[in-house]
Amino acid sequence: EVRLEEFGGGLVQAGGSLRLSCTASGLNVDEYNIAWFRQAPGKEREGVSCISSSNGRPYYANSVKGRFTASSDSAKNTVYLQMDDVKPEDTAVYYCAADGTYRLSPLASDYLRAQEYRYWGQGAQVTVSS
Predict the structure, then answer these.
(1) Which of 8, 25, 61, 117 is deepest in the core (most CB within 10 A)?
(2) CA 3 – CA 88 distance, rounded (Å)
(3) Interatomic CA distance for residues 93 and 39, integer angstroms
(4) DSSP state of 111
(5) Is residue 108 classed as helix, strand or coil in its secondary structure?
(6) Using CA atoms, how far apart are residues 1 and 91, in angstroms rounded to an integer?
(7) pLDDT tens, N- to C-terminus, the chain (130 residues)
(8) Cβ-proximal residues to 90 (8 Å cutoff; 6+ apart), any chain
(9) What are phi and psi of 66, to 5 degrees?
């Protein structure tokens, strides 16, 4: 059984930092595209970042590029999302998701389509106060 669990959500002031983690069981994070999505109240789910299993590189949505950093720890089978210089508009429930499809593209958008991800975590609330 595949399971993804997010940790690290909470309340942070604008300009601060927060780190989310996603621990996987039942799959190897190095063999899957592991992405972070977020959904704010009343808005559609938005792709934030993805670490590609094809080349190990992270890809980011323009809205977080330069502020968020995705990384992975194979020994812990865990993926992280370091969120720096957070803004109130980053407030959302953050989900990690896994997909085993081979992709190799220079475009972040090719890795951040929610409908292509099979496995999802339960989500972690991130609230940024102004």
Answers:
(1) 117
(2) 30
(3) 5
(4) G
(5) helix
(6) 30
(7) 999 999 999 999 999 999 999 999 999 999 999 999 999 999 999 999 999 999 999 999 999 999 999 999 999 999 999 999 999 999 999 999 999 888 888 899 999 999 999 999 999 999 999 9
(8) 38, 64, 83, 126, 128
(9) 90, -15
